[in-house]
Amino acid sequence: MGMTSTAFTDLQIAHMLADAARIAILPHFRRPGLSAENKLKDGFDPVTIADRDAETAMRVILAEYRPLDAIWGEEFGQTPGQSGRTWVLDPIDGTRGFISGTPTWGVLIALSDRNGPFLGIIDQPYTGERFVGAADVAEMTGPMGRQLLQTRATTDLAQAILFTTFPEVGSPQERAGFESVSAQVKLTRYGMDCYAYALLAAGQVDLVIEAGLNAYDVQGPIAVIQAAGGIVTNWQGEPAHDGGRVLAAGNAQIHAATLALLKKA
Can you tell me the distance from the alpha carbon of 100 to that of 94, in angstroms, rounded to the nearest whole number? Predict the structure, then answer.
């Protein structure tokens, strides 16, 4: 018999999911002989047994403790629910980083309703860092203990640090939009996957600009960044929880300055 739905809070369930994913994933990380299948005919979009095992482990917990909620996971798709709420799961965001041995990948967990994500976790199992955002919590735990998450107050693009994952960003047009911002900032860095969003929530960087994202790539980060005082939209300033082109910023002022450049491009 499953527990009653009130036995654990949503945040406790989210932590249980992240814990289960860590246990499933870590035995595979930096192990010789880990094979990755390619999901694309043209290009390279890897998936490993760690991705699938982690999502399976999370789905088992949700089936027991939140059977009425829908699930949307990268590996096993959408499972309908009756509650109007959806758990959005990316078991390993940044599988390219994972198979390369970098600690920039993470487990992404979000809980959403029709207005978008309102609870999120970005978890990095190898470094033991967990970034959490919800209505009344914005914190990370890790090797240095517990710290509150607070985005940076930088309002001047000339002082800003900008991240994206892929140097090409997306299409040539999208790359041009990104370049128009990159030309203005102090520092641009590449290749961070979801860790870039975690660093933005933690007040280390100011901007993340990406294109071609899926809902499960961004919903967890949106909840964490919003809880930490930041703002996430698409490149038109509209909600970004369906994915696509994403602009994450530390505050409303630097978001507005960046949005103006992206719209112009």
Answer: 10
